[in-house]
Amino acid sequence: MKKLFSLIALFSVLCLSSVSAPATTSPLRLGLLKYNGGGDWYSNPTALPNLAAFCNDQLGTDFDIDYGTVEVGSAELYNYPWVHMTGHGNVVFSAVEAENLRNYLMGGGFLHIDDNYGMDPYVRLAMEQVFPDLALVELPYSHPVYHQSFDFTNGLPKIHEHDGEAPVGYGIFYENRLVVYYSFQSDLGDGWEDESVHNDPPEIRQAALRMGANLIQYAFEQ
User: Fold this and answer.
1) Domain 2-221 carries which CATH code?
2) Which member of 6, 90, 103, 111 has the greatest number of CB atoms within 10 A?
């Protein structure tokens, strides 16, 4: 965990040294991506605070519990080492926004996309704008993202049921580095929310939080 903690502490310095973006002295926070198109990017407001608290407890990180909201095209994106994107509907990136997100990811950032149900076709089109020459590919169960501090021998856990389909984890790789992880037919973010929101049983919420922690740990240790 020392490696994970040191990488988190150094992210802003390393990333910002390779791009033109404002420095920050505020505590490190997880980011929530705000996008255009009418989709509810603000879904699951209690998810990231709970995930940050879980990582602090289980991984020894020191995240600020309050997440930051950041727009796709903003230079502030570079202040967040790990950004979460969710919603139920449409996603629209302008050319400038797609370029900014691409530069962020190539510079060391990590994006987790979590389909909260209904955003899949829009996400795929948006990511084609970001990386026209790279595709979302299904990750095998043997991929290290499923075998960090918590072991998921069957891959992405199922948190909420919608269409009776198995959960699938997709990724985009840039220069052999996983820069985007897309959880589909799972609803991880719902599992991170306060227990009272969805009334999920403890074992389901635990699975969701553990998978989220794996994503954060992997992003900093790959």
Assistant:
1) 3.40.50.12140
2) 111
